[in-house]
Every structure is written in structure tokens, then in C-alpha cells.
Amino acid sequence: MFARQTLRAAQPLKSQYRRYATESSGSGSNAVLYAGLAAGASAAAYYFLSQGDNAAKVKDAAKDAEAKAKAAAGQGKAKVEGAVGKAAFTGGDQGFISLKLDSVENINHNTKKFRFELPESDQVSGLHIASALLTKYKGPEMQKAAIRPYTPTSDENEQALSISL
């Protein structure tokens, strides 16, 4: 008896809940989607197969352009090297080069700028950014030479070498 009264009281709540619910719609067909994919695939295949001769022409043109660019770059590099002058420091098995101290400039209490003359007046240092220069000095009372690395502070096209210590 108690259950019947409880369920009877819940009937209006059930009808209120179902009033706002909607039925699910029927699922559509995917035939249009599959037909569109098939048409796109066939168009792509036609385009790919019709471009066979053009691909070889494009590759040949790219090779010709690359060869011309390399030739132009080589000529430009030779002109720049000729205009700048030959490099004093070439690296490799060059060994140590004796340099004459040109001037010393005091920057502050613990830094000096040493400027060296290069062996020939038309030479440039040729040291690029972030190069390291090994210096070797043996004083009159020293038994062994002191070898230290330094970073040059002069421009690579300058006709003298500057080192800040």
C-alpha cells in the first residue's frame, strides 16, 4: 500500500521529465561522403599520372640553376678575397708566426689592448669571429715558453691584429 501511494505521487514527475526529452534522429547514410572521397582520389590520381614529363623537366631546370648559383658564388668569393688581401693566419700546419708589437693601449686597471703588425703590409688577419689565437712567448730569464690562447678583437679585414688582455 505504501509503495502504491509513493509511485502514484511520482507519476507527475515522470511526465514532466519526458516532456522535455526528444527522440533520437535516424542515422544518415554515408554514401555521399564515400562518393566525394572516391572523386577526390580519382582526381588526384589523374593529376599525378598526367605530370610525369614535367617532373623530369623541373629536375633538370633545378640542376641547371644550382650549377649557375655555385659558379656565381665562386666568382664572388674570388673577387672578395682579391679585394681584401691575403690572410696572414691560415691555420693547419702553418706553425707560429713572429709578430712585432706596434702599440699598447691601457683600457682600465687590469685590461690592455695590444696591437701587432702583420708580417706583410698588405696582409689581413683572416681570423673569423670566435677564433682562438695561441701565443708563445719566452722571456730572457724563462726556461720554458708560455703558451696562452687569446681571442682577437680586431676586424678580420683589418691590416693589423688587436688582442685585449
From TrEMBL:
Single GO MF descriptor: cytochrome-b5 reductase activity, acting on NADH
Keyword Zinc carried by entry: no
SUPFAM superfamilies referenced in this protein's UniProt entry, alphabetically: Riboflavin synthase domain-like
EC class of the enzyme, as a word: oxidoreductase
Obligatory cofactor(s): FAD
Pfam families referenced in this protein's UniProt entry, alphabetically: FAD_binding_6 (PF00970)
Residues holding FAD: R148, P149, Y150
Residues of the Flavoprotein pyridine nucleotide cytochrome reductase-like FAD-binding domain: 99-159
Keyword annotations from UniProtKB, A to Z: FAD, Flavoprotein, Membrane, Oxidoreductase
GO biological process: ergosterol biosynthetic process
A GO CC annotation given for this chain: membrane
Keyword flag Oxidoreductase: yes
Entry's EC annotation: 1.6.2.2
Location(s), subcellular: Membrane
Protein name: cytochrome-b5 reductase
Source organism: Monilinia fructigena
High-level lineage: Eukaryota, Fungi, Dikarya, Ascomycota, Pezizomycotina
